Amino acid sequence: MRSALFQRLLNICRHTQWGYAILWLSKERECSNLRPAGETMRVLIIEDDRDLAALIIRVLGSSHILVDHTADGEQGLDLALRGIYDVVIIDWMLPRRDGPAICRTLRAADVEAGILMLTARTEVENRVIGLESGADDYLGKPFAMAELRARVQALGRRVSQKQHSGAVLRAGDLVLDPAAHTARAGVRLLDLTPTEWKLLEFLVRHQGQAISRQQILDYVWSYDTNVQLSLVDVYVSYLRHKLERSGTPDPIQTVRGIGYRLVAGPD
């Protein structure tokens, strides 16, 4: 049971950054629902309160969640459109572009990330606006850090289950089964390494789009800061070679000055 002194401090500080910290510490042991080992989550925070963002980064980092942060709405939108994040945490009021506008743009672009909206606007009308703009969840300020972390993890699991729910991906005669982790070119099964499979999956999910080398690097090798951009070209070459050996015309186009585009042939 909390001491009387602790409760008094909590009541005094709950609307300050120290209040967030105390709420986190008081709930720390109540939130142990981590993703299984080997399934690291990646989160983007778009929040112009840098102190709050730093605390969120610390809390999520303690659960082995990788976090990127920007305080600018436009830059946040550009990062979120890369399609490499499991969850995007968005503040309502931001410089240059507000949270609901970011949500609408991401959903129009079919970005699959879970979106958690943060705001001090807790009225029902504002919650409705946030959710109708495309947010999956809504958290009013101030909030307990343990609750934020639990909501982020729940959104991450939902996105992961959706991406690996067995929905088959197709691009021409390429067929990828995420549940079985198999790839076929026509009737032939492709013998791909895990990295090659992830690269092909990313290209197929974004078929027809010009994808930069940096976007590919962020998605396929997002947890290794020592990887160089040139490795993307090496693995694209590996993938092309295996596709050609299967008798499939090379569907991967080089986009000069940008990266690559997968163009599906006729089914």
What this model shows, in words?
- By secondary structure, the protein is an alpha/beta fold.
- It has 2 domains: 4-163, Rossmann fold; 169-262, Arc Repressor Mutant, subunit A, CATH 1.10.10.
- Helices cover 43% and strands 18% of the residues.
- The strands form 3 sheets. Strands 2-1-3-4-5 form a 5-stranded parallel sheet, with helices on both faces. The protein has a 4-stranded antiparallel sheet with strand order 6-7-8-9, covered by helices on one side.
- Mean pLDDT is 81; it is low at 5-38.
Side by side, the strands of the main sheet go 2-1-3-4-5
Kindly report the average pLDDT value: 81
Task: Give the helix level as a range of percent.
Answer: 40-55%
* Structural classification: alpha/beta
Number of helices: 10
Low-confidence stretches: 5-38
Terminus-to-terminus distance: 65 Å
CATH homologous superfamily (4th level) name of the largest domain: Response regulator
Order of helices and strands: HHEHEHEHEHEHEEEEHEHHEE
Biggest β-sheet description? 5 strands, parallel
Summarize the structure.
This protein is α/β, with parallel strands linked by helices and 267 residues long. It is built from ten helices and twelve strands. It has a five-stranded parallel β-sheet with strand order 2-1-3-4-5, with helices on both faces. The protein has a four-stranded antiparallel β-sheet with strand order 6-7-8-9, covered by helices on one side. A three-stranded antiparallel β-sheet has the order 10-12-11.
